From TrEMBL:
PROSITE patterns for this protein: DEHYDRATASE_SER_THR
Modified residues (N6-(pyridoxal phosphate)lysine): 109
Pathway, per record: Amino-acid biosynthesis
GO biological process: threonine biosynthetic process
Protein name: Threonine synthase
EC number: 4.2.3.1
Names of the cofactor(s): pyridoxal 5'-phosphate
Amino acid sequence: MRYISTRGQAAPRDFEAVLLAGLAEDGGLFVPETWPTLTPAEWRALRGLPYADLAARILSLFGAGGLPLEAMCRDAYAGFGHAAVVPLVQLDHRTFALELFHGPTLAFKDMALQLLGRMFDHVLEKRGERVTIVGATSGDTGSAAIEACRDRSAVDIVILHPENRTSEVQRRQMTTVLAPNVKNIAVQGDFDACQDLVKAMFNDAPFRAEMKLSAVNSINWARIAAQIPYYVAAALALGAPDREVAVSVPTGNFGNVLAAWAARRMGLPISHFVIGSNRNDILARFLASNDMSAKPVEPSLSPSMDIQVSSNFERLLFELLGRDAAATAEAMTRFRAEGRMPVPDAAWKQATALFRGFTLDDAGTLAEIRHLWTSSGYLADPHTAVGTAAARALAPADPAVPAIVAATAHPAKFPDAVERATGFRPPLPARLADLYEREERFSVLADDLGVIEAAVRAHARRNAA
Ligand SMILES: *Cc1c(COP(=O)(O)O)cnc(C)c1O
């Protein structure tokens, strides 16, 4: 299996090269040259597999077969807090929460990153290479990246967070990881300062080359691939391929919903997709009126969806445009320049036939958390609540079609919002119950590129001696 760029100007690559490259050199995103498809009999044969084995089977269809997939998937999901890895919980007569938050950091990014950390390490070791991953976090993604990279032999990781501006849970999820290849830096500045420092390090070409800087960001194809199996698992459990299902996803960068779309492209009978947004509603506006225009990001109770430019949308656009790379490149360039993406009417109509947009404000989100709690005794985090409300509002016309909602974070990760809605704070799961007693390790450093680069260099160099 080879991968091509959505902008058509990069040489095709195999899975491992795409894993290491992330973004294509023409600025586009890698997609499979052809999509693997399964017959109904082949889908049925996957029923009943343990999750790790199912994931290995699906990933092998995407050209990852050169990796020891079965062992890797078993290892990646062994530490999850639920034997099913991704349990389905029924919320009402036709809505099911697909819980993706049983990993080490209690959010769905662990599903892909736990696997990616192992894939990175394996491929780098094989090639005799090392990388230094740097990233900035306002709280949530940093911990998933740190957990994915801890104790990996070919990877060092440095995560910058703004001093005193993350919640204590978020900080402790990062700073209590005492693995020697992990370094946390609390920057004396805000999140923007952290992001600027990371950008400046990547723009410092000699430093970037010396440290072999890398990132595990959400445009990496391997992350999408690793998110396909859980939709397969849920759909099979509910009767696919002999029964249609709908899928509702609380959406930010469009990666999670794109993985669901990929499952449909492979032949899984998904009737349609519901895209849940908070007040940052660019995707809902696009679907309602073909208005894909960026507005300033506004904070909400579901911060991981506080995004205006959904970077993975480019992969869907490429497909909607009949895989016309030149047209995709032009649309993306104009979006960058003008803040508004011109999508031809025919492509937009195709999108609206398959995707439905739904927006929920903070008050609606709190009401939905309360509703789930009082009607079913289910505690949802604010992101998941956007997804469940969306699924109910835009349920399929056929009542025999169940809706799968991606439950993307554990409620204990957002205790303030849950307390506002229900009156109590959800407890951390037992395996994290001692988080507040664990030893923390981090450096507090000035918002100064020279100071930060020196710290990254010292961290990456400690092995070289
Ligand atoms: C990242 C994240 C999302 C958004 O997922 P995308 O793949 O960016 O659309 C939703 N909920 C939570 C809790 C997240 O961490």
